[in-house]
Amino acid sequence: MGLLDVKDVNKRFGGLQALGDVNLSVAENSxxxxxxxxxxxxSTLLNCLVGKLIxxxxxxxxxxxxxxxxxxxxxxxxxxxxxxxxxxIFGDLSVFENMMIPLxxxxxxxxxxxxxxxxxxxxxxxxxxxxxxxxxDMLDKRELHAGSLSRGDKRRLEMAMCLIQRPxxxxxxxxxxxxxxxxxxxxxxxxxxxxxxxxxxxxIIEHDMHVVFSLADRITVLAQGTPLVEDVPENIKGHPKVKxxxxxxxx
Amino acid sequence: xxxxxxKDLGLLxxxxxxxxxxxxxxxxxxxxxxxxxxxAGYPDLMQRFVIFGIFAIGFNILFGLTxxxxxxxxxxLGVGSYAAVWMFKLLTMNVIPAIILSVIVAxxxxxxxxxxxxxxxxxxxxxxxxxxxxxxxxxxYSVLTPITNGETGLQIxxxxxxxxxxxxTADGSIPVTHLxxxxxxxxxxxxxxxxxxxxxxxxxxxxxxxLAAFYLSIRIFRSPFGMMLRAVKSNQQRLxxxxxxxxxxxxxxxxxxxxxxxxxxxxxxxxxxLAGAERMQWTASGEVVLMTILGGAGTLxxxxxxxxxxxxxxxxxxxxxxxxxxxxxxxxxxxLENAVVAIIHPFVGKGWHLTLGLMFMLVVIFLPxxxxxxxxxxxxxxxxxxxxEERAAQQTPAE
Amino acid sequence: xxxxxxxxxxxxxxxxxxxxxxxxxxxxxGTLGVVNFAHGAxxxxxxxxxxxxxxxxSASYVTIDDSRTDFLGNPMEVETPYVHAWFGExxxxxxxEWSVPLAILFSIPVMLLIGFVMERGLIKHFYxxxxxxQILVTFGLAxxxxxxxxxxxxANPIPTPAPDALTGSFDFGVLLGFxxxxxxxxxxxxxxxxxxxxxxxxxFSFLQFTTFGMVVRAGMADRETVGLLGINIxxxxxxxxxxxxxxxxxxxxxxxxxxxxxxxxxMDFLVLSFVVVVxxxxxxxxxxxxxxxxxxxxxxxxxxxxxxxLIPGINQIIIYVVAIVVLLVRPRGLMGRKGxxxx
Lengths: 251, 399, 343
Known about the structure:
The complex is a heterotrimer.
Chain A: E1 4-13, E2 16-26, E3 31-35, H1 42-50, E4 57-62, E5 65-66, H2 72-78, E6 80-83, H3 95-108, H4 123-135, H5 151-163, E7 169-173, H6 181-197, E8 201-205, H7 209-215, E9 218-223, E10 226-231, H8 233-237, H9 240-250
Parallel strand pairs in A: 3-8, 3-9, 6-7, 7-8
Antiparallel strand pairs in A: 1-2, 1-4, 4-5, 9-10
Helix pairs in contact in A: 3-4, 3-5
Chain B: H1 6-20, H2 22-25, H3 43-66, H4 74-90, H5 95-117, H6 122-141, H7 145-148, E1 154-155, E2 178-179, E3 182-183, E4 187-192, E5 195-200, H8 201-222, H9 224-234, H10 236-240, H11 246-271, E6 274-275, H12 282-295, H13 302-319, H14 322-328, H15 334-344, H16 352-366, H17 370-398
Antiparallel strand pairs in B: 1-6, 2-3, 4-5
Helix pairs in contact in B: 1-8, 3-8, 3-9, 3-11, 3-12, 3-13, 4-5, 4-11, 5-11, 8-9, 8-11, 9-11, 12-13
Chain C: H1 2-32, H2 39-58, E1 60-69, E2 75-81, H3 82-87, H4 89-97, H5 99-121, H6 131-153, E3 169-171, H7 172-175, E4 184-186, H8 187-209, H9 211-221, H10 223-228, H11 233-255, H12 265-280, H13 285-302, H14 305-310, H15 314-329
Helix pairs in contact in C: 1-8, 1-9, 1-11, 1-12, 1-13, 2-5, 2-6, 2-11, 2-12, 5-11, 8-9, 8-11, 9-11, 12-13, 12-15, 13-15
Subcellular location (chain B): Cell membrane
Protein name (chain B): ABC-type branched-chain amino acid transport system, permease component
GO molecular function (chain B): branched-chain amino acid transmembrane transporter activity
């Protein structure tokens, strides 16, 4: 049994079968990639994992507990963090404040009202936030408006915000979408460092094969809402079914 | 000190100084001069400055921090007023129980309305709050007449069964509101030459409460809770995926700001013990929105400035009439004088609302950050100028 | 039964006004993405178009009739409206009497112009601003417009009668086989309903059967894509705004005989019309119309004495109650599309 187990998940939108009998198991401490052509159901699957969508049938278990029917914030509190395709950060807040919010969430749960304490009194948390910013090389941007950062920095900040919660599972939705090659490589390096420094499981949805093959321990290929193959990267590369799925799309 | 940073402490001290010295600052013109009508240092108006300051500070905690635009906040003010007047009627003319009850009742009312309205955001939220407020207004006028006294408005009367106190004073008049014996209408008058300064007990009570309310709002702004509220405004999606549910935070902000409105309503009734449904009308809600954005939504001092600004201009503008205008422009040739007066005429006196509407538009169009942002822009302009002068000065010897 | 029919009929005129205003609001919201709090003011201006035309037509000159004297013994001053002088007395009197229907023609260009100016001068700059800013600036504009009207026309309602031929009532009940005098219905309200139906029909067929309408509908569905096709959508949206303004104005013109126009009638209708839009579904034209009539009729039912005795005050709040329930149970409204401002 893996950290995340997806069993027989189906999801229909009207007449469209978005997901059909998806089975997937993400092993602890691995990097698992989900690839597939456009419209293969990757995003639908991801949304089922984080509570944005509820599958029609099937089960999604995380660390032995079902995530189905839970709200996204509850699922996050279980230990799943999510990086979006376009970085979702608190643009009106400073970089430092962006780091404090996940720390408060981690410490206090979904709601606790500290209305009369100062943020500056939280010395322990401040230290933690600064350490994390240092790790992603953003300590010098501490007081900047997060909304004014470059796209690459926004992406880093978002990852730092996810990591500071020490999630068991980090979900990445096309983390390099729309990036230039150099930025993509930087992101790959960043993810590798992150992975080496801590026990974390990653699940990446990605289009860019370069990224997938640089990072993934295991790959699931999704086509038309159904997993075609699941295997280690070496075996995926020349797999006929995969070629067919992608070539089919091209034709 | 007081758990505030240096800058915030300075701000609080400045506001404290301004409110305490207001009777002097707002009466700069000798009472027999023609400019005396620009004086604002009389108790009734000063009380309104600080009371609406409280209202706007509270509204800003909701709108400024979370971005949820409530168009029905006047309902809480109205409810607070009714609660206070009932306290005067039934219990005592001391203002403390009345104010406490008005805050509690407004808080509960806000809890109910917020619980329902906050299930939606954006324009839906604005319309839901508007609908609730209009509903309260309509009910206060009709069915709830036993509680609100309908169109006449709720007043204290000679036959009120006041438990702690008398129904009527020895000379047969209606007792007045007081704070442990200190009458709210008590006013000391200080004559200094041609100047006249008025120190009203009621004003100073309101001012003290406003300072406390302002202090509280600074603490909220600087707290983790305040940061959460700003995060709600900035990106709810991210908040949701960071393990936080926005709704309890927004509801808490809504209730707090409703309690501020109730406090303002209670104080209004404490200064002048009556309450009417028109206080709940949506134009009243619009006014507090305007105060907040005019001053600068999301800034600490903005709402206070905005409230003072609007109440001052409302008072001055609505008092101006053609005679006064002719007096001002008498130095112009007759034809020109009449023309100028004719141009200004629609904007003053009964036309004050036209000025208000125009101000509303101009602020939103040109100065979305309000007076505070305007001040900052001017400040930056000066600093840049001075900076370039200094640079020029430094360069001269080098040449 | 007869009471129910009577209340349904009574709800129709208010419902028609709601539907027309809500239709314009929805058009503006759907096409331009703007929340227009000044739409009620447009309705009010429409009503004042009727007042203005009546005044223009009644403009008179004064002659002195030496053969008669007034009560002070001075020669009598006689006012003769210009139209009497131009068209003869009977035709002239007829023209003045029919000034409200005539104001329809008068108001269309006026309202279109106001709409164009408003969109080009103000609204255009707020497409990309947050909804809160749009609400605030149009709210300010609404105050300004109503104060201007108040300045020129005063604060009191101005009676603006319908033509004599249409002022009476007729016994609707007899038509349906009820006893006489059970369902009495004023002609003008029937006229108003028919007029509203006509305008609504015109707007819908315009959107349905013209290329212009097709583009606008496509724009409502997906603004960016239509923009990409190289169609000058902005210009069309300006025209759309003008049309929405004209619809609100027409609703106002014809409403003048039902309720004497006053400067704050716009605000009163605006709040309710917004509620109507929300109930119907933001961005849904049929929803706006349906909800307008539905709420108008519901309001009328709630004003029945039997209902008020049962739930006091319900007539005052019924619309809000319905709106709150709808927003909570079905946030996108009765006929709203999924995803349009759902949150």
